[in-house]
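Below is how a single chain appears once it has passed through the pipeline. First comes the sequence as given, then the structure the pipeline wrote out for it. We keep one example in the README because the format questions we get most often are answered faster by looking than by reading.
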Amino acid sequence: MTQTGREALAQRFPLVVPVQVRFRDLDALGHVNNAVYLSYLELARVVYFRERLGITGPQELGFILARAEIDYRSPVHLHEALYVGIGVAEIRRRSFVFAYEIREAETARLVAEARTVQVMYDYRNNRPVPIPDDLRQRLEADRIPQQGEGEP
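Resulting structure:
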């Protein structure tokens, strides 16, 4: 039996978020424009912040997005449903890294892999700050194994 996109992602990621491709997401060639994938990642982050960290509004965000990288693996077309898996790949002193996979819902076809770096930030003093211990613990609970980890 073939796995669905949700099932494949749930094996690795603590949170899986559905995404419906919209007509406005398409480019002139009829597939999802590369820039739109950043919106899909943002959606997954917002759901993660709410469901896993209890952050419900922008005033509670104490970090900024500092970097985003995406590896595109397969084109997506209108009427395809997607799932985005999100988990914590790395925790540093002042920043943490989310890892993502985007998969097509029915076949689990890998569409894209991505990473973003979030930096803890003191908006009042305009400078990066260390990750608070309570947040560090919650992020640690959602760490995902990276490729090659755990192998001899």
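The chain has a mean pLDDT of 92.

See the next section for the split statistics.
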